[in-house]
Amino acid sequence: QKEVEQNSGPLSVPEGAIASLNCTYSDRGSQSFFWYRQYSGKSPELIMSIYSNGDKEDGRFTAQLNKASQYVSLLIRDSQPSDSATYLCAVRAGSARQLTFGSGTQLTVLP
Amino acid sequence: GAVVSQHPSWVICKSGTSVKIECRSLDFQATTMFWYRQFPKQSLMLMATSNEGSKATYEQGVEKDKFLINHASLTLSTLTVTSAHPEDSSFYICSAIGGYEQYFGPGTRLTVT
Questions:
Q1: Which of B44, B101, B105 sits opposite A49 (nearest CB)?
Q2: Which residues of B touch A42 (CB under 8 A)?
Q3: Which residue, among B104, B108, B109, B110, would best test binding to A if mutated, counting the most A CBs under 10 Å from its CB?
Q4: Which of A89, A96, A11, A5 is nearest to A50 (CA)?
Q5: What span, in angstroms and rounded, lies between the C-alpha atoms of A3 and A24?
Q6: What is the pLDDT of residues B7-20, one digit of tens each?
Q7: Percent helix, strand, coil in chain B (nearest 5)?
Q8: Which of A35, A38, A40, A70 measures 20 to 30 Å from B108, CA to CA?
Q9: Is A56 exposed, middle or buried (CB count within 10 Å of its CB: 0-12, 13-18, 19+)?
Q10: Is B47 in the A-facing interface, judged by CB distances under 8 Å?
């Protein structure tokens, strides 16, 4: 079982819709959770971090964390073609320094 | 967010030569930096963890004598690919921890001919 799992996609949504990206993790000791966006040919860019259960909103992005279910999600409201990218879920366990990444979900927003 | 820079952004070298890639944290001090490699349409692969003032920790399967890492200061880590071969052609990305969050540099695209 992979430590951090994401649906690889591709996920396609029409412009203006809500894109929902999901991630599950296996280590119950995980404390920190991150979403990165990676455009083709570019390096990952941090878009959200979340540390406690519940929702965290930042503009059109909402991260949701449920530690009991070992589940973290990212919602993108009013999706734009410029949101088309691969979204990486990353988890940091306990006292670890490095992140464990999922394999990413490729999102395409159709104009 | 914090800014991490890399230099060069791309490099072409001949087989058998060595290439040095620099990674700098511009507005914060980073006791720990990470080096990743990414092949086209594949996931990030952690190569090593670079700790300021001490030896790097390499992931299983990564040759430490081929990928030399030096973290000489709190803002600079370097990766040297020694005796590069075409199979070393890849996208190399460094990353640094600022606070609780990890920020990536823009990456260096290495092509070995």
A1: B101
A2: 106-107
A3: B104
A4: A89
A5: 8
A6: 999 999 999 999 99
A7: 5, 55, 40
A8: A35
A9: middle
A10: no
